[in-house]
Design goal:
Layout (H helix, E strand, L loop, with lengths): L5 H21 L7 E7 L10 E6 L2
Antiparallel strand pairs: 1-2
InterPro entries: OmpA-like_sf
Protein name: OmpA-like domain-containing protein
Length: 58
């Protein structure tokens, strides 16, 4: 959300992608197939939410 400073919000996004990555690996997706990008408030759009990007390469 827009509460807090940019560093804290980036760290929340980073933790979110780490969790998502771990869950995907636990469910059989190879770690070399996953790219995670924490964005924090950057490019979050009008809602102002923390944003994280997860890409799975087949």
């Amino acid at each position: 959300d827009t509460v807090g400073n940019a560093t804290d919000n980036y760290n929340i996004g980073r933790d979110n992608v780490k969790t998502a990555r771990s869950l995907m690996i636990q469910n059989g997706i190879g770690s070399n197939q996953i790219v995670t990008i924490p964005k924090g408030e950057e490019s979050s759009g009008a809602a102002g939410n923390n944003r994280s990007i997860v890409v799975i390469v087949k």
